[in-house]
Each structure stands twice: as structure tokens, then as C-alpha cells.
Design goal:
By secondary structure, the chain is of the alpha+beta class. Helices cover about 30% and strands about 30% of the residues. α4 links the parallel β5 and β6.
């Protein structure tokens, strides 16, 4: 078994759609980024790459490459998953913490969990999504963006 840690952070940007865990979240500004800026999928993707010793998100999807401009992060995650499988691994489980003052994650948690599981080929009971605030401290505490920490395990792929 291998374990990887991922972290990502993006500031809010008016006029963009908020994607979180592959789910469109209504009623909130989106996040600034080269792709669709799905901070949760980015952190999970980085954790997968780390566990497989394949570098990081910037190595595979540089923001200087116009190919990835506004790309759905689900597409990036599918590419990462393919690379991980080519190394002989598959995801075992995911645990992620979303750090944000807004939006409230509770109403979206089940849908996000199901979508992340679907994207990774995992049953929802192998995906845990938690949320916390930054207690008013710093830019996150002032509601200026969203950060995510994620950890994944990889197991040898079944034949």
C-alpha cells in the first residue's frame, strides 16, 4: 500500500461557476484557476500523484498550457487515475477536508462523496469528505477562498 497527501487552495472569483468534487454548487462564486479550479479534485489528484511517485499536478497540467484552460477537473482526475493504474495501483480510499467559510458543505456532502467515488471507481464508503471553517483567521477565515487537504491510499491493482 502507498499513501499520498494533497493540498490545494484557490481564491473566489465573481462570475465563475463553483465546482467542488465534480459537483456544481449553486449560489456561490466560483474559484480562480486555469482549469475549472475544482480545489477538491485538485487536492485528491495531487495525493494520487504523490502516492504513485508521479510528481504533482503542475507537472502534468501546467497553467502555461492552453489545453487545460477551463478544463473540467474531472478530466484531469481521469488522466491522473490512468497514470496511477499504469503504475499498477488503484485507489483504496480517500479522506479530504474542505476548509471554507462558505458555502456550507453539509447540504452537498453526499453528492460530492458519490461523485468522487464514481470518478475514482470507489464505493462511497471508501470516500470521506469533511468540512471545517478557518474560524475567522486569515484569508480563508475572511471567506476569500477555499482550501482542501486530502489523503489517499493506493493498493496494488487487482488483475
Amino acid at each position: 500500500m502507498r499513501v499520498g497527501i494533497g493540498y490545494d487552495i484557490h481564491p473566489f472569483e465573481p462570475g465563475r461557476v463553483l465546482m467542488l468534487g465534480g459537483i456544481k454548487i449553486e449560489g456561490s462564486w466560483g474559484l480562480r484557476g486555469h482549469s475549472d479550479a475544482d480545489v477538491l479534485l485538485h487536492a485528491i489528484g495531487d495525493a494520487l500523484l504523490g502516492a504513485a511517485a508521479l510528481g504533482d499536478l503542475g507537472d502534468h497540467f501546467p497553467d502555461s498550457d492552453p489545453k487545460w484552460k477551463d478544463a473540467p477537473s474531472a478530466v484531469l482526475l481521469a488522466d491522473i487515475l490512468s497514470k496511477v493504474k499504469n503504475e499498477g495501483f488503484e485507489p483504496g480510499n480517500v479522506d479530504a477536508t474542505i476548509i471554507a467559510e462558505r458555502p456550507r458543505i453539509g447540504p452537498h456532502r453526499a453528492a460530492i462523496r458519490d461523485r468522487v467515488g464514481s470518478l475514482l471507481g470507489l464505493h462511497a464508503d471508501a470516500v470521506n469528505i469533511k468540512a471545517t471553517t478557518h474560524e475567522g483567521l486569515g484569508a480563508l477565515g475572511k471567506g476569500q477562498g477555499i482550501a482542501v487537504m486530502a489523503i489517499v491510499s493506493l493498493v496494488e491493482a487487482s488483475a
